[in-house]
Amino acid sequence: MIQIDFTSITLFIQVLGILALFIQLYYFLFPYSRIYRHNKLQDKQPANNNNCPPLSVIIVTKDSASMLKENLPAILEQDYPEFEVIVVNDESAGEDEDILKIIGNQYPHLYRTFIPKTARYVSRKKLGIAMGIKASKYDWIVITETYCKPESKNWLRSLAGNFVHGTDIVIGYCNYSNGKGLFAKRIVSDMLLVSMRYLGRALGGSPYMAIGRNMAYRKEVYLNHKGFHNQLTLMRGEDDLFINEIANKRNTKVTVSSDSIMRMPQPEHRKVWKGDKIGYEVTGNHYKGTARLSNGLETWTSVLFNISVIASLCISIINRDWIFTAAACIAWLIRTTTVMTVFIKTSKAMGEKLSAYFFIYDIMRPLYSLGLKLAYMARNKNDYMRK
After folding, report:
1. DSSP letter assigned to residue 136
2. Rounded to whole angstroms, how far apart are CA atoms 225 and 118?
3. Edge-to-edge strands of the sheet including 83-89?
4. For the purposes of burial, counting CB atoms within 10 Å of the CB of 82, is it exposed (0-12), middle (13-18) or buried (19 or more)?
5. CA-CA distance, 247 to 210, in Å (whole number)?
6. CA torsion, points 39, 41, 46, 47, in degrees to nearest 10?
7. What is the pLDDT of residue 382?
8. Residue 232 is inside which H or E element, if any?
9. Buried b / exposed e across 193-229, counting CB within 10 Å, b at 16+?
10. Most CB atoms within 10 A, among 18, 24, 122, 243?
11. pLDDT tens-place string over residues 157-190
């Protein structure tokens, strides 16, 4: 039997594989596992009912009458002593204003305003939030969307429990409602991983972004930072870029208790979800710090690890080197067991119903990431810029 000497190649592949394995284990055992560990801690802690400063919830609406009707009462009926909800209407052509009037008759703490038609501003979402903050009468501002619905009546309390001296920003968890089909599971898995990244880093003292569906900050911080002036050239950035600019390990806290979870409906079309992902890809290019590089390192070391395992298996089987075959299999089992354990525990803690689907997602996500990069490169960047 002819044997091929792959000694130097095998050694090189194994060194790369071991390096990739240790990087992968670091990410999943430390930053990515923080959500479920802190979920347990926060659920065990008794609610601080004495720490409930008055707050203002800001929502910008545009042609979202059905969503307002379905989701707004869940926010207005929060078990919280003193708060107001300000809905900013962005030239809705539908029944938004009629729905707001009907709901307003039942809830006196609902206030509404509108963006003037003459406003010369492309990023009307930023203008809407700015107008809501200007109209607010309380120091703490909570930001969410018309299509979002809290799972608990204690959602505001879960945020307010972190409104302590020295804290200026509180960020929380939001994901799609659990649906059927592979696409539904894919986007829930994707959002869970995104949350494991940005919430995990924030819990570790390195906040770098938030998503404007479940977050709060002090009005004073917004005013001192001159609002969104640094993102005026971009259509987006009122959530992730704004937080990226003002957040640090001292002024940011995270809530991942069961009461803090916010849900949003599955997108009607894939292109809606894809457009949203590309939007964050655009703003992500402006992040300060190492977060973007760190996320890319984790994604592509997973590719490197899988390639090294496959190559090691092929070479060791050709040479009938069963020790190296066993070593490659053991390394793959170690990573897979670690990744699946962390993901399943996090999924369970945050109320997701994904079972073992993440095994498929974990294998496919480098391809998903590459596809997103290519779609971003193919888009006209002026579509995301202020005109």
Report:
1. -
2. 26
3. 110-114, 83-89, 55-61, 140-143, 215-218, 169-172, 252-255
4. exposed
5. 10
6. -40
7. 66
8. none
9. bbbbbbbbbbbeebbbbbbbbbbbbbbeebeeeebbe
10. 243
11. 999 999 999 999 999 999 999 988 999 999 999 9
3-class DSSP state for residue 83?
strand
The first and second tokens of residue 59, run together, are: 């929502």
d(CA 113, CA 96): 12
Backbone dihedral region for residue 266 (phi beyond 0: left; psi -120 to 50: alpha; all else: beta)? beta
How many Cβ atoms from other residues are within 10 Å of residue 28's Cβ? 20
Task: Summarize pLDDT for 97-119 with one digit per residue, the tens.
Answer: 999 999 999 999 999 999 987 76
pLDDT for residue 121 = 55
Q: CB under 8 Å to 323, separation ≥6 — which residues?
A: 316
Measured CA to CA in angstroms, residue 123 lies from 8, 24, 82, 97, 239 at distances of: 56, 38, 31, 21, 13
CA distance 190 to 298: 14
Residue 142: its H or E element: strand 140-143
Alpha helical stretches, state H, the chain: 7-29, 34-44, 65-76, 96-106, 124-135, 155-160, 182-203, 219-224, 240-246, 270-284, 291-318, 322-349, 357-378
Bridge partners (DSSP) of residue 85 are: 57, 110
Tokens of 81: 């002593």
The whole-number pLDDT of residue 1 equals: 40
Q: Can you tell me the distance from the alpha carbon of 113 to that of 108, in angstroms, rounded to the nearest whole number?
A: 14
Residue 134 gets the label, from left (phi > 0), alpha (psi -120 to 50) or beta, of alpha
Burial 297-328, CB ≥16 within 10 A → b, else e: ebbebbbbbbebbebbbebbeebebeebbebb
For residues 236-264, b (16+ Cβ closer than 10 Å) or e, as one string?
Answer: bbbbbbbbbebbeeeebbbbbbbbbbbbb
How far apart (Å, rounded) are the C-alpha atoms in residues 171 and 43? 16
Query: How is residue 149 written in tokens?
Result: 């619905």
Tell me how far apart the alpha carbons of residues 339 and 343 are, in angstroms, rounded to a whole number.
6
Q: What is the DSSP letter of 263?
A: E
Structure tokens at 356: 């073992």
Which token pair is 244? 């990226």
